[in-house]
Amino acid sequence: MDGLKSKAATIPIITNDDDFKAIKGQEYLGIYPYVDKVGGTFFVNFLPRGHERLGKWLYGVAV
Q1: What is this structure's pTM?
Q2: For the ranges 23-27, 31-35, 54-58, which has the lowest average pLDDT?
Q3: What DSSP line would sit under 1-61, residue for residue?
């Protein structure tokens, strides 16, 4: 997919601590930024560089 589109991100689905531990062991997930939700807002995280609101990352403007 990332060869066909200009942007790609992962959205980890975590329902408990065991899910979190399993995701941390998947190094290939570190290649892409990941999406997470804080309150009611979604962010794309480019750790360690920072983060940006999902709408701005997708469309270039605050949505």
Answers
A1: 0.63
A2: 23-27
A3: -TTTSS---B-----SHHHHHHHHT-GGGGGS-EEEEETTEEEEE-TTS-EEEHHHHHHSS
